[in-house]
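Input sequence (65 aa), recorded before submission:
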Amino acid sequence: MIDLMKQQLFDGGRIEIRGFGSFEARKYCAYKGRNPHTGESVDVKLKRTPFFKCGKDLMDMVNER
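Predicted structure, token format:
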């Protein structure tokens, strides 16, 4: 099941688990960054990263305590 979820995100899809939350791969554009140690300017490449959004039921359950 985990392999199927990973493949879905790799293919640009979205996964929703009712009552729990949803997963998607978000794109971040390339930009000019800065090395905090040297102050040197660096190019940060375009990237995609997994993103989780908590469902309302899960959020309510966690906040009950």
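Checked by second reader. The chain has two helices and five strands.
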